[in-house]
From TrEMBL:
Stated name of the protein: Lysine exporter LysO family protein
Source organism superkingdom: Bacteria
Keyword Transmembrane: yes
Transmembrane segments: 6-24, 36-55, 61-87, 108-128, 134-154, 166-187, 202-221, 233-255, 275-298
Entries under Pfam families matching the protein: Lys_export
Keywords per UniProt: Membrane, Transmembrane, Transmembrane helix
Provenance organism: Enterovibrio gelatinilyticus
Classification via InterPro entries: LysO (IPR005642)
Length: 299
């Protein structure tokens, strides 16, 4: 399996070494990435439709996602408040309102895309043997574009190394998530490397679901997608509640999304001082999602 995982990992590395200065080109890449995510998640739904014993597989997806969600979430929330006690962080109170409903709808759209693919696969009398090869080909393009995005995100190595709080948040999230993944794998009697891979999504539901689905099949892909999507939706709710007293906890629970999707919530509810911490921790976690997932599934 290792050569196959390296084959998938190469486009990400190649993309990361490409520097782009054109703003319009970067915007085009961002739009293309979003569209490819929709396409691959639709294909994931089609893959689920092609499973034998679909109802039992859907139950397995739900069991996996719920177990991993609680094990990882509890592990995160037990450790991150300790970090808040050790590294005091001042926040600023703002009166701006954050459009939480619209942010939730952005996530819910992707659920409908997967569900739409599933319904089409069940209703239309079409062969589905082309879905997996198509998903893998589009995944290679997606990883290449994600590599470019990460390289051109504006973060320098110096900025990352000098932000002690951002580094600390990312480290705690990584360690506790992996411990939670091991616990979930033990409870479900799964291979431990699969548990570690499932725990390495850090809230990036689209990429995590796609990578797990390509590596371990649609059941793991669907479970990973649902796990990370639930984490993001819960983060949207918890960040405004926690950030005044436990800013590092709020940022850490947002995982990889603190760099982009939940960053507006962090900024408007915690103030501008929280932004560098969120960007650094989110960048590190985003960078490690494909690296750790591909590493663990290859073991």
């Amino acid at each position: 399996m290792l050569p196959g995982m390296l084959y998938i990992f190469i486009p990400l590395v190649v993309g990361y070494f490409i520097t782009i200065k054109s703003t319009s080109l970067l915007e085009t890449i961002n739009r293309s990435t979003s569209r490819l995510v929709f396409v691959i998640l639709g294909l994931m739904g089609l893959s689920l439709a092609g499973l034998d014993n679909l109802s039992s597989n859907l139950n397995q997806i739900l069991l996996l996602s719920v177990t991993f969600f609680f094990c990882i979430g509890v592990a995160n929330l037990l450790a991150l408040p300790i970090l808040d006690l050790l590294l005091k962080t001042k926040t600023e109170q703002h009166k701006q309102t954050v459009p939480l409903s619209s942010m939730v709808m952005e996530s819910v759209k992707l659920v409908f895309v997967v569900g739409g693919g599933l319904v089409l696969g069940l209703l239309l009398p079409i062969p589905l043997d082309w879905v997996d090869p198509a998903s893998e080909g589009i995944l290679l393009i997606l990883l290449f574009l994600i590599g470019i995005q990460l390289r051109n995100s504006g973060m320098t190595l110096k900025q990352i190394i000098l932000n002690k709080k951002g580094l600390s948040v990312a480290l705690v999230v990584i360690v506790t998530s992996l411990l939670g993944g091991l616990l979930a794998a033990w409870l479900l009697d799964l291979p431990y490397n699969h548990g570690l891979a499932m725990a390495s999504g850090f809230g990036w539901y689209s990429l995590a679901g796609i990578l797990m689905g390509d590596a371990l099949g649609p059941v793991y892909g669907g479970a990973s997608f649902l796990l990370e999507l639930t984490r993001e939706l819960v983060a949207i709710i918890l960040i405004p509640i926690f950030i005044a007293r436990y800013p590092l906890t709020a940022i850490g629970y947002g995982g990889a999304t603190s760099m982009d999707f939940t960053l507006p919530i962090i900024q408007t509810t915690g103030g501008v001082k929280c932004v560098p911490i969120a960007i650094v921790s989110g960048f590190i976690l985003s960078l490690l999602v494909p690296i750790l997932m591909l590493f663990f599934v290859a073991l």
